[in-house]
Amino acid sequence: MASPPHLRGGIDIRTFPYPVVVISKCLGFEHCRYDGQMVYCDIIDKILPLTEVITVCPECEIELGIPRDPIRLVDGRTMKLIQPSTGRDITEKMQFFVKDFLDHLPEVDGFILKSKSPSCGSRTAKVFASPDTQEPLHRHGSGFLAKEATDRFPNLPSIDETALMDPETREQFLTRLFMQADLRMHHSSIQELMDFQARNKLLLMAYDQCKVKTLGRILADHKNRTFDENMAVYVNTLQEMIKEKPSRANTTNAFMHAFGYFSKDLGSDKKQYLLNCMEAYRKGDLNIQELRKAIRPWILEFRVDYLADQTLFYPYPENLDHLDPE
């Protein structure tokens, strides 16, 4: 599923796929936390209309009930999931559910999971030495679903509701999420991969210009491999490449490359203004959303169709640019 195309200034602005996202059910969907409460996340609420959502509450699925006595991660020789008040060891039951859930999961693009949860927390869940100790160990672990999901899908973007509050972390997550969805919908032929590479070229340059060339060579060499082999190599290289946040220096270089497409048509004052914006971004005085906002009007003004389709300027729908919680 993709958003409908639309015109801006007489030129086509890129359409967006609807990412398929697994989200913890307690994050605004149902009152299913151990205390019968729900955690409302304004940012998730704003993302929902642009995604397809699969919700999950592992504790409910293994019939612990709502409300329920808390469960905890207990690290002995192996990690266990224990309910201290009853002494129940629910490790195997949770493992069975998690395996079954992930085995039957359709192709997804990312995860938004509840922080600190013994089922869904990713490196944020408290770990205890025994079911009876009051104080947790001085380290955190991952809940059973979060760990298995990371092991199975190490290259998919995953975040919790707390990390979503950080603008730069959220930017990286959304960029990867929508790129992953784009790839999922457009990978049935070499031509689709080439088109995907073309519209993501400048954004990928912000990650690693050398690896952009590597991706190009993989596609150019497609006749020497089967399509499935070529696809696997391309996707693995791409996903490994975009795991790390792009540097401001590399991102500035990508914007400078785009600037060259219309700079000759700008007056000296406007040209200097955009150069100042790019320098301010490079130095950390301007965020990426503000830089995109400064340059987008000129893409429309000069009808630069190539740039209008570039994910560097439109990595995700514009209304997700500013998602600070209300």
Automatic annotation (TrEMBL):
Pfam families: 2-thiour_desulf (PF04463), DUF1722 (PF08349). InterPro entries: 2-thiour_desulf, DUF1722. Residues 201-317 form the DUF1722 domain. Signal peptide: none annotated. This is DUF1722 domain-containing protein.
